[in-house]
What we know:
Elements: H1 4-19, H2 50-53, H3 55-75, H4 77-99, H5 108-119, H6 131-148, H7 153-177, H8 186-212, H9 227-248, H10 253-281, H11 296-300, H12 303-316
Helix pairs in contact: 3-4, 4-5, 4-7, 5-6, 5-7, 6-7, 7-8, 7-12, 8-9, 8-10, 8-12, 9-10, 10-12
Amino acid sequence: MSTSRPAAALRALAARAVSAPAPAAEPAPPGPAPAPSGASPTGPAPTLPVHRMNLLPRLVSSAVLICLVASMIWIGGIPLDVLIGVAAALAAWELGALLGRLPAPAPSWLVIGLAVWLAERAILPGAGGNLEVILPIALGAGMVAGVLFHSPWEGWAAGLGGGLYLGIGLGSLLGLYHWPGAAPGVGLRLVAIVVAAVVATDTLAYFTGHALGRHPFFPAISPKKSVEGAVGGAVGAVLVAGIAGPLVISLNPVAAVGMGLLIAVVAEGGDLAESALKRQADVKDSGRLIPGHGGLLDRLDGLLLAGPAVYCLLVLIAFR
Length: 320
C-alpha cells in the first residue's frame, strides 16, 4: 500500500501537466506593420497637384480666346462692336446669376440691358450714347420696376451697380478704340496694349504664384493668391506697357511705366473684387463657358477695371 500510493500520485501529476494549456506567447514589440505584397516600402507614389491637371484645357482655352480677341481688335469696326456687345451680354448674364444668389437678388434684365447699352454707347448716334441720358433712364426704370414687382431696394441698387460695372468697363475699350483726335491706328494699339498688359498680369501672376508663392495675398477673399504672384503680375504689366507705350503710340516712357503699374493694380483689384462677390454668392466660378477658366466674367474681371483706369489716365495727361 505504501508504494502504490506515491505511484498513483505521480501519475496524476503527469496527467495534469500534459492536459494543461500552453502559456500565452509574449506580445510582439511595437513596430511598423508589414507592407502588403507588391506595395512599395516607402509609401505610395506622390500625385500631381490638382491645379496642374487643369493646365492643358486652361492653355488651350487661353489660346483660342487670344486669337479671337486679337483678330477682332485687328479687324475693328463692326466685328469689334459686336464682340463687345456679346461679351457684355454674356458677362451680364453671369453677373445677374451671381447677384441672384445674394439675400437681395438683383433683376437680371436691369443688369443685362444697362451693361449692353453702356458698352456700346461709344458708337451710338446722338443722345443714345450720353451718360446724362442713360443713367437717369436706368435709375427711373429700376425704381419703378422695384415698386411694381416688390423688389427690395438693395436688389435694384445692385442691378444698377452691376450694369455700370460691366458697361463702363467694356465700353471704355470702345472709347479707347475710337479715341478722339488720335491718328489712324492709334486706338487699335491702345486697346491692344491694355489687353496685352492685363493678359500678362494674369499669366505671370498665375505661374509666379504657383512656382514661388509663399505669402498669402488677401487670403480671406482668395486663399490661392500670393504676394509673389501679385508682384510677378505687376512686372508683366509694367514690361508690356513700358515697352509698347513709347514704341507703338509714342507715349512718354514715365507715363508708360505708370500706366503699366496702374493696370497691374486695378487688374488684380478687379480679380479680387470678383472673387469677393463669388464668395458671397457661394460659388467657385461665375459660369462654365470657358474650359479651365470658368465663366466669361472670370476672364474679364481685370479688364473691366483696367479699361476705365487707362481711359481716365489718358484724359488726365491729355494724350493725343
